[in-house]
Amino acid sequence: MRYVDGLRIPTLLFEAAAWQYSIKVTCACGRSAVFDPHALWHRFQRSRWDETFAKARDRFYCRECWRTKCRKLRPVKFETCREEPTVRLPMPDEREWKRAINRFRG
C-alpha cells in the first residue's frame, strides 16, 4: 500500500479487492478488460503467483493480438478502477475470503 496526496493506493491484488477496486488491463491495441478483484486475487492465490501489480501485469496478454498476430503482447496499463467487471472468473469461497480479510486486519 502506498499513499498519494493522503489517499491509499493499492499495490497488491488483495488490497484492491479489500477496498472494492476493479482491475482494468489495457493492451497497446486499445482493447481492455475489467476483472473482479476478488476473483482475480483468488486465481493468483490458487496458482501461487506473486500478487503485486508489477508482477501480476506480466501474467496478462491480449487474446485478440495473440489470435491475429501470434504474439503475446503485455498490457500497457494495469490499473484500478470503479467499473463493472467484464471478465468473469470463479469467486473465492466465502470462508476463504473472510480468513484472508482477518489476516489483513490483524
What is the structure about, briefly put?
With 106 residues, the chain is α+β, with helices and mostly antiparallel strands. The chain is built from five helices and five strands. The chain has a three-stranded antiparallel sheet with strand order 4-3-5.
Regions with pLDDT < 50 over 5+ consecutive residues? none
Described by the principal axes of the CA atoms, the overall outline is globular
The termini sit apart by 16 Å
> What percent strand?
15-25%
Total domain units: 1
SSE series: EEHEEHHHEH
Overall mean confidence score, pLDDT: 93
Q: Over all CA atoms, what is the radius of gyration?
A: 14 Å
Main beta sheet, described?
Answer: 3 strands, antiparallel
Physical arrangement of strands within the biggest beta sheet: 4-3-5
Q: Helix- and strand-based class?
A: alpha+beta
Tally the helices. Answer: 5
Total strands: the figure is 5
User: Percent helix among the residues?
Assistant: 25-40%
Question: Care to describe what's here?
Answer:
This protein has 106 residues and is α+β, with helices and mostly antiparallel strands. The protein has one domain. The chain contains five helices and five strands. It has a three-stranded antiparallel beta sheet. A hairpin with a 2-residue loop joins strand 1 (2-4) and strand 2 (7-9). The protein is globular. 17% of the residues are buried.
Helix and strand layout, with pairings?
Elements: E1 2-4, E2 7-9, H1 13-18, E3 22-26, E4 32-35, H2 37-47, H3 53-56, H4 63-69, E5 77-81, H5 94-105
Antiparallel strand pairs: 1-2, 3-4, 3-5
